[in-house]
Amino acid sequence: MILDRNTLESIITGALEFGWEDGGLAPERFTAVQRAHVHERSKEQPRDMASVALDFYTDARWIRLEVGTRRERKEFAFDLLEDGVLKAAQRPVMPDDEEEPFVTVEFPLSEGEKRVTLYLPWARAARIRRAELPDGASLRPYLHRRSFVAFGDSITHGCIAACPSMTYVNQLARLLDARAVNQGMGGEFMRADNLTPGTYPEVDFVTIAYGTNDYRHNTAAVFDADMPEFLRRAVEEFPGKPIFVILPLWRLLEGRGKIWDMGRTLEEVRACIRQEAAKYPNMHIVEGAKLVPHLPEFYGDPFLLHPNDLGFSQMAMNLYREIKDKL
Amino acid sequence: MKLTFEQVKACTKGAMEVREENGAAAFYRFSPAQSAPYDLPDCPEERFRYTCDTTASVMVDFWTDADAITLTLSGTCLDGRPEIPVEILENGTMVQSAKVARTVDSTGQVVPYGPATFRFPLSKGEKRVTVCPFYLTVNRISDVILENATTFRPYEHAKTMLAFGDSITQGHICAHASLTYVNQVAMLLDAEVHNYGIGGETFWDKKIVPGTYPRCDFVTVAYGTNDFVKCSAEEFDHHMPAFMKAVAAEFASVPVFIILPIWRQAEIRSDRRKQGRTLEEVRQLLRQESAKYPNFHVIEGRELVPHHATFYGDTTLLHPNDLGDTFYARNLYNELIKVLG
After folding, report:
1. Angle at B149 between CA B148 and CA B151, to 5 degrees
2. What is the distance in angstroms between the Cα of B232 and the nearest Cα belonging to chain A?
3. Is A69:A95 a contact under the CB 8 Å cutoff?
4. Over the stretch B11-68, which tens digit does the pLDDT of each residue have?
5. What three-state secondary structure class fits B316?
6. pTM, whole model, 2 decimals?
7. Where does the pLDDT of residue B83 fall: very low under 50, low under 70, confident under 90, or very high at 90 and above?
8. CB contact under 8 A, A317 and B310
9. Which of A73, B13, B54, B311 has the fewest CB atoms within 10 Å of its CB?
10. Is any Cβ of chain B less than 8 angstroms from the Cβ of A293?
11. DSSP 3-state assignment of A42?
């Protein structure tokens, strides 16, 4: 049973729009209008599949996807969950010898009706050329209890999760039974144009997690203009909704008290954000430095900047404890 | 501020007794009456008696505005591990850890380690500080100094839980003691936990010592995976119902959660071991026995940890690692709060 476009769109979460390219469905986590405002340095990233997943109930005994993507990174990852538990993962390697590479991934499924969640690779753009279930299999979309938009940088995007289901956004979404639209982009600052007014669906809450790149690469003048404007736009775009402003996580540079172009320590950057967010009654500060243990085992890079899967698990759980009673 | 023994004792959680031994606070998660069965000739394995004295889920937990904490760690170790860790949490998040290095390989013998003194800087202002020693060793803490502290008081949990089980409950194979599933679920529930997990243990009719347990809000029981491998059907069919009956009698007024064995690699091939049953058949017997008791709630253990090598710390895919235990705790929490509210 090949799923037609309408059926496929109905079971995909995390997308704001759908395109059709080269014979495949392209879920988009940014709308075309939003993509037009993305900074040049991040132009390709909105096409990545961060927090995009197929999420549905079925009694099928297998699912097969034919997925195409760009070839910049050879390996990419799919995670399959049944009833919220990760059961299988595949890391297909893209073939070298084709102009427009597509890979086929197939997962066996257990007996009876269950919720199936198939995460697409967080760091790759994807076109779904074909999605197939056995003939006669039942199929209906999973309906989440809530929805949210996650703004942020590479950590929100998913860097450096080995498994797409393990990014903090995806783990938090499952904990809260929420549908997530992930607008994280690697390297990004808290830039006003990262939030395009009038382009978002109704959601239950918002998370904002910038600041660590501002600390390292931005200037005080740009930050002092952009940061307040971003937060003001968030409050206007999502009136009355809880907005959780996640201050920058602990990172190795912090321990050394390094100061860069902005001329501020990371804690001073946090203080600026804290001060600005305090102006808005529906904004809640989350002390990012307390979300991930300050130990190398919880980070996936030698700079101790990006949490790994274990660090993301701690981050999601600690964030969940902060958020759940405020929803 | 140097803490007295009485102050350390007052903020120790998860211990049935805290004794002053050679100037250090010694923690006992089993009371003498509770460990007495392990001195009997019919104790299933001799090493269980030593394991009773290890400090699984024992923590020193308090509020303070100190700038730093210094403490001295010592104890004994039964296996050959080269380092004994200790972790410091602030407001429930691990922020630092240190390790006592050992040069003696003591595999199979109980050998002392330490003393070693560590200083941990703390963040500004008042915060909850938790000292978490390792779950596989017998640990003593002494000379606890809180620098520039003007405040100090024990942390008070909202609930108390008792956790019975095997190595997975004790904490194997977590690299970080604060990340065992028991400790993580306790943190989520704001519960002090008395951890009675013993590595290698199976259902045993003498395990429960009536009238010796602290008042608690709920109990978890997580055996079965070792029974599947080590016990004959006759042994299991005697000890499992007897244990359940003893638990039902001792904890009649609180919810008891029977956590069925989690997924393990041996299941892939539908292995049958000494018991002659598959692991799923063992689960089914546990479900049937649990159904006899109205305050027992079955948790489908197979759905708690992802069925993937990434989440297990051993090549046999038996013991979850830190990541696996994080999922175990989180999924278990979701099941527990359906009953606990």
Report:
1. 160
2. 30
3. no
4. 999 999 999 999 999 999 999 999 999 998 888 888 899 999 999 999 999 999 999 9
5. coil
6. 0.85
7. confident
8. no
9. A73
10. yes
11. helix
With contacts defined as CB-CB under 8 Å, which chain A residues touch B97? 295
B76 with B24: CB under 8 angstroms? Answer: no
Residue A221: phi, psi to the nearest 5? -60, -45
Contact A249, A314 (CB under 8 A): no
Residue A254: CB partners within 8 Å, gap ≥ 6? A265, A266, A267, A289
Torsional class of A293: left (φ above 0), alpha (ψ -120 to 50), beta (otherwise): beta
| Tokens matching residue B256 | 């008891």
Name the residue type at position A197: P
Q: What is the pLDDT of residue A91?
A: 82
| Contact residues on chain A for B96, CB-CB shorter than 8 A | 294-295
Tokens of A235: 């409050």
A313 to B323: CB separation less than 8 angstroms, yes or no: yes
Give dist(CA B192, CA A325) in Å, integer: 21
Q: Between chain A and chain B, how many beta carbons pairs sit less than 8 Å apart?
A: 65
Residues in chain B within 8 Å Cβ distance of A89 = 308, 310
Does the structure show a pLDDT above 90 at A127?
A: no
pLDDT digits (tens, 9 = 90+) for A312-326: 999 999 999 899 989
ipTM of the complex: 0.77
CB contact at 8 A, B70 and B117: yes
Please tell me if residue A44 touches chain B, with a CB cutoff of 8 Å.
Answer: no
- The SS3 of residue A166 is helix
Backbone phi and psi for residue A97, each to the nearest 5 degrees, phi listed first: -100, 20
Give the closest-approach CA distance of A14 to chain B in angstroms: 23
Which residues in chain B have Cβ-Cβ distances shorter than 8 Å to A313?
Answer: 323, 326-327, 330
Q: How confident is the model at residue B107 (pLDDT cuts 50, 70, 90)?
A: low
Q: What distance in Å separates the CA atoms of residue B165 and residue B196, rounded to the nearest whole number? A: 7
The DSSP code for A40 is G
Residue A6's region, left for phi above 0, alpha for psi from -120 to 50, else beta, is alpha
Q: Give the residue on B whose Cα is nearest the Cα of A250.
A: B95
The per-residue pLDDT for range B207-223, each reduced to its tens digit, is 999 999 999 999 999 99
Spell out the residues 6+ positions from residue A256 whose beta carbon is closer than 8 angstroms to its own: none
Q: Which chain B positions have a beta carbon within 8 Å of A321's beta carbon? A: 92, 188
Determine the residue of chain B that is closest to A86 in CA distance.
Answer: B306
Residue A149: strand, helix, or coil: strand
